[in-house]
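Preliminary data (for renewal application), flavin-adenine dinucleotide complex.
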Amino acid sequence: MISKHSEYLGTAREIAHGIVREQAEQVYSERRWPEGAIRELQRAGLGGLSVPTEFGGLGGGASGLAEVCEVLGEQCASTAICFGMHCVGSAVIAAHATPAQQRELLEPICEGEHITTLALSEPGTGVHFYLPQTQILASGSGYLLNGRKTFVTNGNHADSYVLSGVSAVDGLSFSCAVAPQGTPGMEWSGQWTGMGMRGNSSLQLALNDVAIPESHLLGNEGDQIWYVFHVVAPYFLMAMSGVYLGIAQAAYSAACAHLTKRSYSHTGSMLADTAVLQHRIGRLWGELEKTRQLVHAAAKKFDMGSDDALLAVMAAKAEVADCAVMMTNEAMTLCGGIGYRDAGPLERYLHDARAAHVMAPTTDTLRTWIGRAALDLPLLGD
Ligand SMILES: Cc1cc2nc3c(=O)[nH]c(=O)nc-3n(C[C@H](O)[C@H](O)[C@H](O)COP(=O)(O)OP(=O)(O)OC[C@H]3O[C@@H](n4cnc5c(N)ncnc54)[C@H](O)[C@@H]3O)c2cc1C
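Predicted structure:
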C-alpha cells in the first residue's frame, strides 16, 4: 500500500520509465489506447491518486496529480492525458460523494478496478464546456439524459463517465451525473484521428434516453457551475499542466542529447561546442524551469486553499501551453535536418504539444479569465 507523496511519485516514475516508455511509440503509431500502462498504474495503487484519504484514496491533491502527469507525460503524453482525465473525473466524483457513491464508485477506483473520465464538451458549444445542452430530466426515481458529448478522452474504455447537463424543465439549472459504461442509450461513434495525443481515444457519445438512478447525480441539481470552477477546472488544469510540462521536458532532453552527439567531420567539434547553441539551450532551460516552478506553486496554492489559487492554476496552464509548443518547436530546429528526417519522438512531441492550446479552457480563454478576475470583473463576461 503506497501512501506518501514521495512513494507514489517514485512508483509512477518506475512505471513511466518501464511500460509507459516501452509502449509510447506503439501507442502513437497504432493510435492505441494505452491499456497496459493504465492497468499497471491501477495495479500499483495509483487509481485513487486524486481521491481524498478519508475515502481510501492517496489524497494527492492538485500537486500529486500535476507531478504524476509530468513524469508520465515525459514518456508518453497519451498515457498521461488518459490517466490524468481519470484522476480529474475521480476528483469530481469525490467532491460531494454520498455514501453510495463512495461505495459504488470511489472504492473500486481506489482498488484499481474502475476507470472514470470527464465527458463535458459538446459539439454545439465547443470550448464553452461550462454551457452544456445535454438535458437531464427527472423521471421516476432517477433521471433521463439526452444530448451529445464530444472529445471524450478514454471514450469507450472507461467504466463510468462524468457528464454535465442542464435541467430539461428550465434549461438553466445544470448538474453533473455519472453514467456507467454500457448504460442503454449510450452510443459511441467516430475514431480518434487527431494530429497528436493519438492513443487518447477521444470519441463522440450520443445520449438517447440514458436512464440513471437518482444516486448517480453528483451534488445537488444546479451544482454544475460549482463543479466547473472549484473542481473540474483546477484539477483539469493541473493534470494538463503536468502532461505538457512532461512533453516540454522530453523535447528539451532530446535537443540536449542531439547537441552532445552530433559532431562535424571538418572540425571534429560537436554542436554542443557552438556558443549560439549553448545560448539557446540556456534560454530553454530557463523557460522550462520557470514554467515548472509556476505549475508546482499553483498546485500548492490550490491544495492550501489560497485565495488566488484559481488565477494561479489558470495562468500555469496558459504558460505551460506556450512553453510546450515553443520547446518542441525549438527542439526540432536544434536537431536540424536529421531531427526532421528521422522518424522519432520529436514528431510525437510536436503533435502532442499542439493540443495544449486547443483543449478547453484554451490559452486565450484562460488569459481572458485571468484578466477579467484581475480587473474585478466576473469571469464569465460577454
Ligand atoms: C486531445 C483532446 C482531448 C480532449 N479531451 C476531452 C475530454 O476528455 N473531455 C471533454 O469534455 N473535452 C475534451 N476535449 C475537448 C476540448 O476541451 C474542447 O472542448 C474542444 O477542443 C473544443 O473544440 P472546438 O473545435 O469545438 O472549439 P471551438 O469552440 O470551435 O473554438 C475554436 C477556437 O476559438 C476560440 N474561441 C471560441 N470562443 C471564443 C471566445 N469567446 N473568445 C476567444 N476565443 C474563443 C477557442 O479558444 C478556440 O481556440 C478534448 C480535446 C482534445 C483536442
